[in-house]
Amino acid sequence: MSLSRSLPACARARSCLAFASLASLLASQGAFAAPSTTLESARPKPLNSLETARPLPPGPPRWAEDYRFLDDPAKRTDAFDGLRYQRLGDSAWLQTGGEARYRFDSIRNPVFGRRGVDTDHYIQQRLQLHADLHLFDDAVRAFVQLENTRAWNKALYGPYDQSRTELHQAFIDLNTPLAGGKLMTRIGRQELGYGNQAFVTYRDARNIRLNFDGLRLAWSRPDGYRLDAFGLRPVVTGEDSFDDGSNNAVKFYGLYGTLPLAGPLKLDVYGFGLETDQRTLDGLTGAEKRYTAGLRLFGNAGPWDWSWDLAGQGGHLAGAQIRAWGLSSETGYRLGGAWKPRLALRVDAASGDHGLGDDRVGTFDPLYPKNGFYGDSGLTTLANLYLVGPLLTLAPRPTLQLESGLFGVWRQSTEDGVYLPGMTTVPGTAASSARKAGTLWRNNLRWMPTANLTLDLEYSYFQAGAAVRQADGDDTSFLMAATTFRF
């Protein structure tokens, strides 16, 4: 689990040339994207919200928490405040916290019944403990998080189901003033999430959250300008304790900037590079260099809110040129009333391939996406996709939220397959002639009986369309119940 193999940003000259190409492409393109209000929170809440509700709900990273307001004894109103924050001196403090999540899943016909399993019932455990030390008025920071993940009775294991006890995060921050703002230099093992997390997320729904080894720089100014640069390798999970390590076959680097605009509009601009030594896609196998450039337009005005991401991809795979595009969007309107109803329309689209094995790769790769937009059933992702449908969110109480969505799902190209998270296809669907993948109905309920305890319930039903049925697939239902304790 050595961190010495972490990738510095722009480690080689050709990576820097890729950044230059991305910068010029970003200057010439336009697009959109924004945050969802699904039960898995897309972004950390403003830090001052911790004064009234702490800790952060399940989802956002724990390193986003700031408890310095607990220097005031009158604000220590929670039983765990003495554990979560300790003042060590005039310029030093320590924050600690933990999480215990137990989750039960029941799936009928996993992967549309194409994996030889009729039902899969299993329990998963995730335990986390972290310590967050700040020195010299936050000029130096050290964050360490341990994680234990287990799964019992699972018929179809995946790489993110269990990894015993691991060092999930371990990084050092150096914060220095620069150009009227602050520059943060973070090196080590860390989580990463940007914008609405359409393409980069820490992925809370899976038992093992996504983490990386490497370097990240983040410059920000009080007026809203922000620029991040990073060079990372994803962490590969092992089966035993303390055997996770950097994936030396994959490099992930990029830039992400936020530009404040006038009025309710906000704009993010980004460019990512993903280099993989060996992958198979669209009938080709070989080394891939995939570059993503995009824009995110988001904001709110009165009862309206919106979040739109539009991205284009280029590069090459085994000598074939990559030309792909993707859109992730949600537009909502909040009605008046005691239950605070919000109606929203989700419209997602992503290109597919139009000739397997030829000299062009047309399938969009969403990189490291938050597929929670479509629920936790793991049956679709932003690749070769058209997805449209309404969402209704109700909050009868501040501690209770319900959300229901109904989506039609189609293939963008009938010459490409139906894609699952992880960029694998439903077996047999690439040979199907139909466009309709199916209809997805998902329902979520989140109840927080106390500030530290969260109960989640989800039921999803994916009615298989002709594209799946022609591949001998069937309808899939998914039930999940989870309880999370945090301090």
Euclidean distance between termini CA atoms: 27 Å
Largest sheet: 18 strands, antiparallel, barrel
Rg from Cα: 22 Å
Low-confidence stretches: 1-47
Helix content: under 10%
Q: Structural class per helix/strand content? A: mainly beta
Number of strands: 23
Q: What integer is the average pLDDT?
A: 89
Helix count?
3
Strand content: over 45%
Count of separate structural domains? 1
State the CATH architecture.
Beta Barrel
Order of helices and strands: HHEEEEEEEEEEEEEEEEEEEEEEHE
Shape, principal axes of CA atoms: globular
- Any idea of the CATH class? Mainly Beta
What does this structure look like?
With 487 residues, the chain is mainly beta. It has one domain (3-486): Porin (Beta Barrel), CATH 2.40.160. 5% of the residues lie in helices and 51% in strands. It has 3 helices and 23 strands. The strands form 2 sheets. The protein has an 18-stranded antiparallel barrel. Strands 19-20 form a two-stranded antiparallel sheet. The radius of gyration is 22 Å and the shape is globular.
Note the main attributes of this structure:
single chain, 487 residues, mainly beta, Porin, two-stranded antiparallel sheet, 3 helices, disordered N terminus
Please render the helix and strand layout as text:
Blueprint lengths: L12 H16 L52 H4 E5 L2 E17 L10 E17 L4 E13 L11 E15 L2 E10 L21 E9 L5 E11 L8 E2 L3 E11 L4 E17 L2 E18 L2 E14 L2 E15 L7 E9 L9 E2 L23 E13 L2 E11 L8 E2 L3 E2 L10 E12 L5 E12 L1 H4 L6 E11 L1
Parallel strand pairs: 14-16
Antiparallel strand pairs: 1-2, 2-3, 2-23, 3-4, 4-5, 5-6, 6-7, 7-8, 8-9, 8-10, 10-11, 11-12, 12-13, 13-14, 14-15, 15-17, 17-18, 18-21, 19-20, 21-22, 22-23
